[in-house]
Here is the input.
Amino acid sequence: MKIVKYLVFAITTIILIGIFSFKNIEAQNPFLPTKLKITVLDRLGNVVPEATVTLYKDESSYRANADTVQSMMTDEKGVALFKNLEPVSYFIDARKGDENNDGEGVQTASLQEGRVNKVNTIIE
Here is the structure.
């Protein structure tokens, strides 16, 4: 009977350790890169492919168009996926032709580390 009690105790302990060890593993894993997925939309809510999206770390760089963090064009779904970012707030400059996002969702919240952070911005 004692063997059964010890066996039940051991199995319960292993299960509890397993449950609490894997809780929120994504946020605890330093090897997952911090990403920012920006979807560029027009004023009607349609995606905007081939828009240029540029990230800046601070407002002065954004206003001066200097010291860019990364820059890329959106794909056919209007998405630009920035990888290996620091978990801070960024300023977004999105442009296509004479349309831009000035005053429309220019600054992100601080990014969550080790996750794909998602933001929409509107150009008009």
In short: The first strand starts at residue 35 and ends at 41. Strands lie at 35-41, 52-56, 68-73, 79-82, 91-96, 99-100, 116-122.
